Amino acid sequence: MSEVIITSQEVIDREALRRLCDLQTIVIPKDEDEDDQADDEKVPLKAKLWSLYNNTPIDGKRTTTYSHRKANFGRVYQEGVGLQNCPSQVRAYIVPEGYYKDIDVVNAIFTVFENMGDDIGNPCPNLIEYNRNRKDILERYNLTKPEVIKMMLYEDRKIKIEFFKEIHTWLYKTFAPILKKQPEWIHIWNYVEESTEENVIRNPNGSFLSRCYQKVELDILQSKRKFFQTHRIDSDVLIHDGQWVHGEIDEHLLRECEAFIEDDLRGLVVHLAEKPITVSKELLEANDLMEIDVLRRNAYKACSHYDFARLVLHLLGDRYLCFERKTWFKFKGNQWLPLAGAPSEEFVPILLAYMESEFRNIDKMLKSELKDLQERFAKASTEAEKEEVKKEMNDKEEEIEDNVKQHGHIVGNVKTPRFRESIFKDVMERLEGVSRDVQFDATERWYLLAFKDGVYDLRTGQMRKTRPTDYVLKTTKYKFPVHNEEKSRKVKAIIESIHPDPEEREFAMLEMASGLEGRNTHEKFFTWSGSGRNGKGIEKDLCVAAFGEYCTTPMATLLTERRGTSSSPSPDLMDLVGARMVFVSEPENGQTIKTATLRFLTGNDRVRIRQMYGMQQTLEPIAKFCLLCNDLPLMDAGNTDAVWDRIVLLLFRIKFVDNPKHDFEKKIDRSLKTILKDLGPQFMLELLAIHRKYFDGNVLRLDVPASVQKMSSSYEDLNNPLKKFTRVQLSIESNCPVLPTTKLYNLFTGLWATDENLSVQMSQTAFVNELKKQMPTAKKERKWVDGSNLMCYTNVYVRDYKLQDDKWIPMEENAST
């Protein structure tokens, strides 16, 4: 059978979700109708909710996908985290109030079995009666719906109630054997027989019936979706036999839907009902002590590594992550730090320290209670009272002794190497589930700038404490700075000396301030150019000191060498993970910049990369790239408009020398480099001020001055001289002499290139083809010129130059002659 993939959109109340995420813990009573398979216990709820929050857009609307997990039949499960795999009360809490309606199939599993029994011509009378009078029958036998379902889906259950025993016998002695032989269901039985899952091997017939039901359940769900879509009702959240829809629903529409399902699924009769979506907020916002106390009691009672692993996970909180069972990170201070290896030796000491603390607390409490009893005994006035208190004292002494024995026994187990290894393995599996959706320094959290003492929110201009779920991997490496007037004046003086023009100075600061954001909204490639000792290096060093780990300085080969394949190691690209400001050194003489690489680095494209012998990860370059050069390098494809839309050239016009003699020269301060690191934090405050000034409506305005635009155009002319040639020297005119293509080509590569001090290397064929792109209205046809039949332009006029005696000369020279 073909795999079913369903895509839909679900709407989440991010504020409600955040309130849950910020709780120390969440304790939720199980809904009696909730499906055990709806929640993946391998992923702790808090981690799941944080992952959901971090992957939900600001407007709360998120696209999600449902698909089969193992076989291509049965239920579809939500990929990643979402509403389906949250507990029912959490689902109700984190969606907008009143937005969804929960449309369920009433008594779904037994209704399906009744329909299937009719199809095979062998109905079960007791099952039909149960479906008609379920509420009365449950009250009569003091049972709940889940208890009946579990009773029926296990073949080896010993059922004492005769009414249900007959249904159970029909399911396994009549119903299942007939289904196994039918073409529609035989592939499911084959799947069950070949399964190596322990629960399937223990209960093959029950597993078979469950999967048959789940197949029909999916058919019903898809049929309901078709019906709701034709009525323009959003069917967003799929919860196996039910779904949450957004739209106007009434009883009449539900009856129409039932009729549609019956017609669509060959006579399948179901009853639909709207189920209230309610939640007890007091139950959700429970005390932290409740959960850890429950976990401790379960672990001590069962003494299994599984229960101890759950206790360890709670004690660890959000402090560890594990990727692919080999790459570990730990939250320490205000950032996540990579670990050299698995922290197996850290987990058990944390557990033992907690156990020792709990033992002492309980021991202290019991001894205090014993002391109270002893005081009561001393004050007892009758023998009967003394005897009663004496018995309580003996019980309390036994309780104290039992507590000591239990503690010693459990500690001994936990210290056993095999038990410790089992705990660590379980913890690692669960942490791997938590880590699956984690991305450090992700674009979604572009507004967070991490310092040693917290994170700065660029949207609000406020500092706050770093949370583990901010997933901060890089920081500035210093605390948020305090304004220092003297250092501030020094920083401003340095920047002003490098950029005397106020407009260009402001833009230079804006370029660097754009690097504060962990996103690349403008898709620009900054180029700083000018002859040596003009302040480029000073500004770069200030940025390095200010940005800390957010700044990196790769070699020019990042731009000049061809990128490797996705499977090959890419250490140069690994350095870009999480970087926000990247300064690239000048390429060697004669090397050109790979425009494909430039577009990739500035175009928000994702690529798979890996370190040598490391795991693969996804890189989405978010940095602002800045090329520092004395001489402007050429592009390998300089005629590509997509490149020049991105390049912004800023000229550094001042030269710092020992003995200034010209207006463009200033006195060099050779001690400056020694204080730049100390000025970095103060420079950060200046950049934050610029960011606040130009941050408008969640977007940073990048206002490029006219002088900078002119510089950038000149750089394009250097790389695409033909574009400049056509723009400056040529025009389309109706009455002008015919112009042989060869003559125009000779002007371009000869006299004009010499006058412009440009090196032009282009064949005549390439010249003609490129000119056609630059001047699409230029007309070409063959003409007789000086006795030769030549290809000529008939409407192209040349400015500033003229043919004389078959040679090109400037107009000025011709006029003087």
Automatic annotation (TrEMBL):
Coiled coil: 363-406
Pfam families: D5_N
Keyword Coiled coil applies: yes
Keyword Hydrolase among record annotations: yes
Keywords, sorted A to Z: ATP-binding, Coiled coil, Hydrolase, Nucleotide-binding
GO molecular function per UniProt: ATP binding; hydrolase activity
Residue ranges of every copy of the SF3 helicase domain listed in the record: 501-665
Cited InterPro entries: Helicase_put_C_phage/plasmid (IPR006500), Helicase_SF3_DNA-vir (IPR014015), ORF904-like_C (IPR051620), Phage/plasmid_primase_P4_C (IPR014818)
Protein name, as recorded: SF3 helicase domain-containing protein
Organism this protein belongs to: Rhizophlyctis rosea
